[in-house]
Amino acid sequence: xxxxxxxxxxxxxxxxxxxxxxxxxxxxxxxxxxxxxxxxxxxxxxxxxxxxxxxxxxxxxxxxxxxxxxxxxxxxxxxxxxxxxxxxxxxxxxxxxxxxxxxxxxxxxxxxxxxxxxxxxxxxxxxxxxxxxxxxxxxxxxxxxxxxxxxxxxxxxxxxxxxxxxxxxxxxxxxxxxxxxxxxxxxxxxxxxxxxxxxxxxxxxxxxxxxxxxxxxxxxxxxxxxxxxxxxxxxxxxxxxxxxxxxxxxxxxxxxxxxxxxxxxxxxxxxxxxxxxxxxxxxxxxxxxxxxxxxxxxxxxxxxxxxxxxxxxxxxxxxxxxxxxxxxxxxxxxxxxxxxxxxxxxxxxxxxxxxxxxxxxxxxxxxxxxxxxxxxxxxxxxxxxxxxxxxxxxxxxxxxxxxxxxxxxxxxxxxxxxxxxxxxxxxxxxxxxxxxxxxxxxxxxxxxxxxxxxxxxxxxxxxxxxxxxxxxxxxxxxxxxxxxxxxxxxxxxxxxxxxxxxxxxxxxxxxxxxxxxxxxxxxxxxxxxxxxxxxxxxxxxxxxxxxxxxxxxxxxxxxxxxxxxxxxxxxxxxxxxxxxxxxxxxxxxxxxxxxxxxxxxxxxxxxxxxxxxxxxxxxxxxxxxxxxxxxxxxxxxxxxxxxxxxxxxxxxxxxxxxxxxxxxxxxxxxxxxxxxxxxxxxxxxxxxxxxxxxxxxxxxxxxxxxxxxxxxxxxxxxxxxxxxxxxxxxxxx
Length: 733
Fold this sequence. Notes:
single chain; alpha+beta; Arc Repressor Mutant, subunit A; CATH 2.40.50.700; 17 helices; RNase_II/R_CS
């Protein structure tokens, strides 16, 4: 026997017990005999087979394996198998997150057995080492999280490899020459993983789309969408179907609805909005109360369950708002035309109409289908101008904030309606805050783009009274619809938007960080936590650390989600809450409209399982869209900083790790990193308890929250990453 083969055989025999256990563990529901084990080990000589038989008997004697029929063995059933989700950490190792276990299961890279980030797997847990972490091995991949990846293709003579952009993907993908789909070396592509042969280091795949050269604007935006499996165009059959819908307003349909076309109605939206899915109506009643209508585009009138348009909207589940474009949930004929409540047009709507007294108390409510006519359209800035100048007899909108860029006068009845609704909204908001709602008014970063989508400037968007006016009435509609169904007996299946209480550990971590800035929380109970959190958000407003603390506070919260199981909404302090007000851009709102109408028509309770599955899908798609939106902002920030490499920037240290210091630029909120190895003046050590790095020789400290000056060292558009050069502490300049 050749020396090399003998060596391999000896290794297999030496670790025979462990090797047999690994084979039985990999498929613990299947029984194996000695011949099958020998075949898997590629051992075919009588001596090796005898040793396998002997080891099987030894393991059976120890109770590790069982003989379930003559000569056939399985692993002794144990409680050591769990199902969980893979979370890949650094260097290809990972953790399995199991719902019922407090501690995640650590898995070395060699024991992942081809499991990738996000996969649902079966994991076998080894006996825990004394004082060590729980460790295990993936025995079965139950469900792949994703099979399509974005990466850069390296084309060789007879094959290609795709280096995947996602840092949690620890392997490249092998692509045979006949499956590269015309991709050229160095291009970004979308690749489908098709197979991962037993003995192959890399999975095999095929290129399904060429995205373009890295660094080019459209390539990078399309890559972001492709990475999250989000489409950027509609299939032709969906567009054709939408374009053939009759969107005219019919007298026969009006008869089935409450006609509110004569009631004063208007919209308030962002200046650049194209889809107006909500409008407000206002009427003063003879008894001194007000009738206020929240009118929402009746998207469910045009979407029939099960047709291609509805299926496409469900699959997308949400519109995606990237920095330079919107990827809509519905084709333009609906999103910007038929369902958009544009001024001076009649529209089918679904409405929540309230009689409200001057103290902002709800006297009566009504829900149902309506037909409305919008008398005017306002941008937030225009409505804000009216609110900020309440005593003007004639409300004139100046040209610099006017939608039309020309000065104009607002009809007195509309100005009065806006002012009165602002007053009522402020009362509703105060009540909400007293009940324990948390006021997240996080600053939004916006870019001024040229005609080629290059960032020319950065500005911050803050929520003002006009935004809060709309917000309060939308919250009122959402809460009231949820309450109306949620309190009915017998209980009915419904789609709720829920928000759990924050995790104690996350709140403790937040407390630890904010005390570095001189702030504290009172976490005695639910109400004091919310009150002190509001105080914190108020105290940091306008300070250098505002964005950092706003972000950390939001991260300490649970994630809001859709479900049929109502647990209330912690952040809003509501016992019942849903999404009813944005069906053009959110599919759950379409489901809510359908269910509400079904129950108004005295229909029986819908199937809970069916709606719970749809809720799960909607929550998942919302998370993907949020990640894509975040990536597009990061990309645009890097692009912006690329053009300002010669500038010194004042920033605040937003994070400290053992490999580097994260700094957020105060003037534009762009975040980048100074690597510890790039700090040339000393050797810095990370101090976890101090949230700081400390120079070993000079004792110089860079601590979380410190102001520092930095310069751009490297702006990587493809990785969406900024490297800074440290210039020194802010106080030293």
